[in-house]
Amino acid sequence: MKAFALLSVPMADPNPTPGIHHVTCVASDPQQNLDFWVETLGLRLVKRSINQDDPGTYHFFFADAEGTPGTSMTFFPWGDMQQGTVGSGQVARTAFRVPAGSLDYWEARFDDHGVDYDERVERFGETVLPFRDPDGLPVELVAVEIPDDDPTVPWEAFVPAEHAIRGFHSVTLWLTDPGPTTELLETMGLEQVGTEQSQGDTPGDERTRFEAAGEVGQYVDVLPTVSASRQGHGTVHHVAFQTPTDDDQAEMRTAVRSMGLRPTQQIDRHWFRSVYFREFDGVLFELATSEPGYASDEPLDDLGGRLVLPGTFEDRREEIEANLPDVTVPTPDEEERADVEADADD
């Protein structure tokens, strides 16, 4: 009988992720959440929906004017959950890009709106303004040069375009053992681009930065941290990375699975298709497609204007609406519009 040697065929690398698709967090009061992220921070509510795994809870999506991939911060307002504790095994910081030179504007705006913020810090040659939302969620603004052909579209209802948030800059992971996650990020196509001593309230000694291939949400920072964590109000639920097409996602899922992780099957989330898995330290990662997008079921001009119930949930509209608290989406009055126009003229 002939013996045949088994040939080991190396698995092809997946297409690199362009970067962050969205970040989903836990809030407490839905109206407070809407008021802060729309009126104070000037993001557009591009989708008002429900948590598809818990339809008695809202799911709010805040983004740029068109809901561009890499711009949407989303929230589950779970009012009966406890206050969370940011620690290891979590996305500990979420950072947004703002145009260079706009941090003075944001500090003045935070003073006017009573926002809790810290002193600026320098990180990898960029200036960072840390602050917290009403639930204590740690957030940062990073001043960067926004190119003329940037894919994001500023929403100008409350904040003028020259100061508006322009999508994600980065997320910071606090990890007890960064080694396996470092390998995972590299498998996903991110490249290690620098290391420096951490500043601010991060307890790790050394921050390592990884860069993705895209233009928005392209950075993931990793800090070694041993600190207790608890999910609740003011914490990140998961971070989603872009896998633009179904093929991209399937290849990335295979690569992740080959590392011993346990990604789910693809799940239809109506505005994108998703695969979920926990990385080695417990952070919940998602892979999300670019299509069909937030404008697939509402006209672009009307994004966020109504409660959208995906799929079979529409058949339960009366029951679902009866169990959701009433909320009002902030809209600028004449004085606020005048202030935005005046800021734009200055």
Q: How would you explain this protein's 3D organization?
A:
- With 346 residues, the chain is of the alpha+beta class.
- The protein has one domain (20-345): 2,3-Dihydroxybiphenyl 1,2-Dioxygenase, domain 1 (Roll).
- The chain has six helices and 16 strands.
- Strand 11 and strand 12 (219-224) form a beta hairpin.
- The longest helix is centred in the last third of the chain and has 13 residues, at 246-258.
- The radius of gyration is 20 Å and the shape is globular.
- 42% of the residues are buried.
**DSSP summary: helix tally:** 6
Query: Can you tell me the residue ranges where pLDDT is under 50 for at least 5 consecutive residues?
Result: 1-10
What name does the CATH topology carry? 2,3-Dihydroxybiphenyl 1,2-Dioxygenase, domain 1
**Rg (C-alpha, Å):** 20 Å
CATH class: Alpha Beta
Sheet of most strands: 8 strands, mixed
CATH superfamily name? 2,3-Dihydroxybiphenyl 1,2-Dioxygenase, domain 1
- How many domains? The number is 1
β-strand amount? 25-35%
Query: How many E strands?
Result: 16
- Taken in chain order, the helices and strands follow as EHEEEEHEEEEHEEEEHEEEHH
Helix content: 10-25%
Q: What's the overall average pLDDT, rounded?
A: 93
CATH architecture: Roll
Please tell me what the overall shape is.
Answer: globular
Structural class: alpha+beta
What is the topology, as strand order, of the major beta sheet?
Answer: 2-3-4-1-13-16-15-14
